[in-house]
């Protein structure tokens, strides 16, 4: 029924009809969209999301200098992530990135990494809504993932200690090369690789991560490094926050030929929601994001796809996907594009669970292997602050050092001769 105010004119019959049509259409649309929302809510409550990448710890460092006592993580409206909206977005598990700037490489990267692990461990234990987990055998909620191999300062013992502290994944680079792996970014020129995107020490890192049961993350690495790791790793690997290069030509995204190698590795690509990697423009919408999912599904199937939002690590996100409460809108769009409930359950969580399970099964197979004692050579690490305490025999192994040793021996001989005289 049309309700009109006394001063309004009486509508013409055809106008009244069109208004009636509009009301009917609106009611139908409300009914259908309400049904779609109910369907998404039902699906996501049965299969809550495991997201592959969130830089909340970076914001805690930048905005609050990690002073957790002074903030309330339940509600932080100035950023895209808080506990209230994680619940609204049906997020049941989050890989939180442990990230320190590339500028810390060869300086205090290890200390800063430990401090980022500390703030995440505190947050994940002090808030009752979080639970710090390190294995599939527990309820998954809050996982630690190092972003950038510079955090281990080219040390396998440091890698092992990070594992002991609960870190379960590491990307081999961020935007800087390490002495042993290559970044997709050309921003930093140090440790530039020449036809060797994964050195023998890099391979030792991959092997040790396989042995430990730590997930290897290839987001941020160069395609050459990604390919070398895909050829070398015994366990499945992930791209924790990368999208499709065929849909958006950004070097942070993954080309189809690598997607196919990832499929052979039984690995996973978790689609990044950052606007720049989605549309290659300054703006994007949910439909652009869904195009990445459709394309990757066409190339390697839905059982190799996840979601790795990159919230807090990037500045622009697609319209309608601006914070952690908005994942249902993406699932709704994929439902509209005829993704099945099984496929959506897979990308929301089942695929990640399978990967983690397979990584741990490989760890169990390698249980008899001893911790690797491979050390990087001093020539590969150009760091004057690195203190080396090694037995004299090995300290003379490099050409420069052997020259020094010869010189020292000559000086000793001469001084003995002088003393004898
Ligand atoms: Zn990143």
UniProtKB/TrEMBL annotation:
Signal peptide (residue range): none
- Write the record's keywords in alphabetical order, separated by commas: Dipeptidase, Disulfide bond, Glycoprotein, GPI-anchor, Hydrolase, Lipoprotein, Membrane, Metal-binding, Metalloprotease, Protease, Zinc
Top-level EC class as recorded in UniProt: hydrolase
Protein name from the UniProt record: Dipeptidase
Q: Which InterPro entries match?
A: Dipep_AS (IPR000180), Metal_Hydrolase (IPR032466), Pept_M19 (IPR008257)
Its GO CC terms are:
side of membrane
Cofactor(s) recorded for this entry are:
Zn(2+)
| PANTHER family tied to this protein | DIPEPTIDASE 2, MICROSOMAL DIPEPTIDASE
List the subcellular locations: Membrane
**Catalyzed chemical reaction(s):** an L-aminoacyl-L-amino acid + H2O = 2 an L-alpha-amino acid
Q: Which GO terms describe its biological process?
A: proteolysis
The Enzyme Commission number assigned here is 3.4.13.19
Sequence similarity: Belongs to the metallo-dependent hydrolases superfamily. Peptidase M19 family.
Taxonomic path: Eukaryota, Metazoa, Chordata, Craniata, Vertebrata
Its domain of life reads: Eukaryota
As for membrane topology, the entry says:
Lipid-anchor; GPI-anchor
């Amino acid at each position: 029924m049309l309700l009109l105010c006394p001063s309004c004119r009486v509508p013409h019959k055809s106008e009244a009809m069109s208004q009636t049509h509009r009301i009917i259409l609106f009611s139908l649309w409300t009914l259908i969209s309400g049904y779609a929302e109910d369907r998404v809510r039902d699906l996501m409550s049965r299969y809550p999301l495991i997201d592959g990448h969130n830089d909340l710890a970076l914001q805690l460092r930048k905005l609050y200098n990690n002073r957790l006592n002074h903030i309330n993580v339940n509600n932080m409206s100035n950023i895209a992530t808080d506990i209230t909206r994680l619940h609204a977005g049906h997020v049941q598990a989050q890989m939180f990135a442990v990230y320190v700037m590339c500028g810390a490489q060869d300086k205090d990267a290890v200390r800063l990494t430990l401090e980022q692990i500390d703030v995440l461990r505190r947050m994940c234990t002090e808030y009752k809504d979080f639970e710090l987990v390190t294995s599939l055998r527990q309820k998954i909620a809050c996982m630690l993932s190092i972003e950038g191999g510079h955090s281990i300062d080219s040390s396998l013992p440091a890698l092992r200690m990070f594992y002991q502290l609960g870190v379960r994944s590491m990307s081999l680079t961020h935007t800087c090369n390490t002495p042993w792996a290559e970044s997709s970014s050309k921003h930093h020129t140090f440790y530039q690789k020449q036809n060797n995107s994964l050195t023998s020490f890099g391979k030792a890192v991959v092997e040790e991560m396989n042995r430990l049961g730590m997930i290897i993350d290839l987001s941020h690495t160069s395609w050459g490094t990604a390919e070398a790791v895909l050829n070398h790793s015994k366990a499945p690997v992930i791209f924790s926050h990368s999208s499709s290069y065929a849909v958006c030509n950004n070097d942070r995204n993954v080309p189809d030929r690598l997607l196919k190698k990832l499929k052979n590795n039984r690995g996973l690509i978790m689609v990044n929601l950052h606007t720049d990697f989605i549309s290659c423009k300054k703006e994007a919408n949910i439909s652009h994001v869904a195009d990445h999912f459709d394309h990757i599904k066409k190339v390697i199937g839905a059982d190799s796809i996840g979601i790795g939002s990159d919230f807090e690590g990037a500045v622009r996100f697609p319209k309608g996907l601006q914070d952690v409460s908005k994942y249902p809108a993406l699932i709704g769009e994929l439902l509209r594009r005829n993704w099945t409930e099984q496929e959506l359950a897979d990308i929301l969580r089942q695929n990640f669970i399978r990967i983690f399970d397979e990584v741990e099964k490989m760890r169990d197979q390698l249980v008899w292997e001893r911790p690797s004692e491979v050390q990087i050579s001093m020539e590969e690490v150009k760091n004057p602050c690195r203190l080396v305490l090694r037995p004299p025999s090995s300290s003379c192994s490099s050409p420069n050092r052997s020259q020094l040793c010869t010189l020292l021996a000559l000086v000793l001989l001469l001084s003995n001769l002088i003393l004898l005289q």
